[in-house]
């Protein structure tokens, strides 16, 4: 057996040897870059809000727009991964996504800015490809760990973006440009990053260890959609879970800078730093969730993984409630780090379960669950746009919602064997 053509059974995060590890390193780095395009505007919102004269409700609408387009994009991207393969799918997404990122500076009013932010939202579908591609490169016993590390290091881009984009903005202002121009020029940087990663992805990765889909005739096998996926309650339980962990993560990425500015009177750079610390925990927290999930799964099976997910979700909910009650910056930071740890562990645990729900339609399941995360982010966004609800109250309500979802996860039997697909369920190509 030629092991170079087989999924790896070990993850050496320092290695670039072999197509599996080269693809692993490139896919998380690409996802990292995608966060610069997706959330590059978030830490600049205090300036953008003043420049465009946006109300609280309008700011909330832009936060919703940033995550809502991703819902549909993730559903489509999951299917395209099954049909085209992750290499071509990622390359296409990066090229298309770079366009609104580089052109958002043309927005001069609320409506045009909203439309650009909606278009930029498709970049969030990059996560599905990252998880799909990592899944193809590693053996079952290590899939959860590999997915969690790739997803976590990619998500780390969300934290780094919140820290770095204000610095790019400040450098442009220091070069003599006005604030009106600086935030617009700053967004060209992540747009160029996406184009560079598109070239790297196309030429230096392949769909599976054995070759690209076109070389192994995989495309012919993946055209039919399985309605059994939609009939499996476990898929929806995971979608709910991801709605309240990753959905909360991207919501927090979008509102954290404004919350620290408005509630604790920090300047834009300082607020961006502390918001970035939240995202920075992806360096290890999501990976911790995946590693523990793999160990629990190896000993207790899918049932154990489900219980672990329920526990970390419940602790995330508690941490959010504590954060909502913070009246000093110090307490807010401690509470933020608490709920961030369990939130990101829940992210990793969720995608340690996803690859085993329906192994014939991994891309479709990953797309549905990933879209669930953005549905959560979109719905949470409505709380933050409401004039009658403070940001602190919104965090408290979300904490309660997370706790309810944790109970749903506890009651779900993830160890249930999927029902065999019938001809009627798989009929009809889309």
Automatic annotation (TrEMBL):
Residues 23-417 form the Major facilitator superfamily (MFS) profile domain. Signal peptide: none annotated. It is a multi-pass membrane protein. InterPro entries: MFS (IPR011701), MFS_dom (IPR020846), MFS_trans_sf (IPR036259), NO3_transporter (IPR044772), NO3_transporter_NarK/NarU-like (IPR004737). Pfam families: MFS_1. Keywords: Cell membrane, Membrane, Nitrate assimilation, Transmembrane, Transmembrane helix, Transport. The chain crosses the membrane at residues 26-45, 57-77, 89-107, 113-132, 153-177, 183-204, 225-252, 272-294, 306-323, 329-353, 365-384, 390-411. It is found in: Cell membrane; Membrane. Belongs to the major facilitator superfamily. Nitrate/nitrite porter (TC 2.A.1.8) family. This is Nitrate/nitrite transporter. It comes from Xanthocytophaga flava.
């Amino acid at each position: 057996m030629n092991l170079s053509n087989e999924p790896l059974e070990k993850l050496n995060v320092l290695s670039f040897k072999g197509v599996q590890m080269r693809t692993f390193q490139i896919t998380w780095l690409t996802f990292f870059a995608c966060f610069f395009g997706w959330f590059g505007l978030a830490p600049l919102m205090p300036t953008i809000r003043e420049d465009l004269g946006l109300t609280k409700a309008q700011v909330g609408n832009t936060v919703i727009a940033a995550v809502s387009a991703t819902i549909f994009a993730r559903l489509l991207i999951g299917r395209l991964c099954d049909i085209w393969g992750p290499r071509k799918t990622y390359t296409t997404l990066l090229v298309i996504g770079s366009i609104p990122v580089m052109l958002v500076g043309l927005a001069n009013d609320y409506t045009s800015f909203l439309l650009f932010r909606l278009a930029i939202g498709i970049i969030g579908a990059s996560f599905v490809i990252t998880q799909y591609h990592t899944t193809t490169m590693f053996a079952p016993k290590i899939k959860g760990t590999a997915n969690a590390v790739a997803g976590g290091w990619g998500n780390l881009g969300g934290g780094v973006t919140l820290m770095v984009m204000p610095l790019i903005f400040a450098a442009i202002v220091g070069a003599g440009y006005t604030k009106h121009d600086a935030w617009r020029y700053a967004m060209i940087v992540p747009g160029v990053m996406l184009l560079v990663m598109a070239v790297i992805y196309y030429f230096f990765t392949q769909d599976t260890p054995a070759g690209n889909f076109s070389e192994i005739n995989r495309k012919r096998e993946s055209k039919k959609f399985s309605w059994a996926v939609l009939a499996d309650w476990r898929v929806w339980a995971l979608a709910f879970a991801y709605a309240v962990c990753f959905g909360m993560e991207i919501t927090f990425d979008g509102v954290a800078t404004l919350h620290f500015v408005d509630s604790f009177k920090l300047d834009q750079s300082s607020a961006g730093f502390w918001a970035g610390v939240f995202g920075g925990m992806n360096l290890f927290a999501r990976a911790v969730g995946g590693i523990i999930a793999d160990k629990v799964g190896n000993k207790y099976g899918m049932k154990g993984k489900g219980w672990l997910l329920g526990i970390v979700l419940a602790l995330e909910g508690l941490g959010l409630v504590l954060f909502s009650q913070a009246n000093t910056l110090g307490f807010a930071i401690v509470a933020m780090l608490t709920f961030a740890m369990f939130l990101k562990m829940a992210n990793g645990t969720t995608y340690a379960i996803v690859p085993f729900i329906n192994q014939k339609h991994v891309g479709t399941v990953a797309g549905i669950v990933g879209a669930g995360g953005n549905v959560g982010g979109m719905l949470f966004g409505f709380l933050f746009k409401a004039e009658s609800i403070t940001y602190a109250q919104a965090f408290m309500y979300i904490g309660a919602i997370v706790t309810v979802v944790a109970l749903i996860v506890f009651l779900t039997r993830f160890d249930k064997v999927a029902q065999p697909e019938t001809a009627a369920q798989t009929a009809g190509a889309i």
